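User: Here's a chain of 159 residues. Predict its fold as tokens.
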Amino acid sequence: MTLRVRQETHSTDYSFLSFIAYFFYPPLYLAGPTTTYNAWISQVRLPQQTYDTKRMLIYIVRFLICFVTLEAAIHLSYFPALGANSRNRRIWKKMSAYELYGGSYCILKWIWLKFCVIWRFFRLIALLDGIEPPENMARCMSNNWCFDGFWRMWHRGFN
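Assistant: Prediction complete.
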């Protein structure tokens, strides 16, 4: 792993055109993790060097595992469909407490996996482009002991 040497800032780094380029940078603009302008412009001038070929391949494999798991969950699990509309309320009313807990937990896991795939996809595009935004959802939602820890890992770019 190589360390990045801090470069001097130039007046062209803070131009209107640079700001527009940052604002409309597709991996961060569409649905990617949040990064500051200063971090983005410094990585435009000197691309990230922490993800070498081996780490990039590991990240791609991890993304593909999450994507395949999401596809399997979409096709094999019926819990996300239960929360889709208000007509399913009578199904929820017929469930026992344990079924409600299990169904709610499965829906939360599905939502976590869905956002994980979306954010990792756009982060992967940025990494391939030489920009290293922070990793949202660095831990599984079940690997948190409090809501505060969950929120910090969920939107790590905001914290």
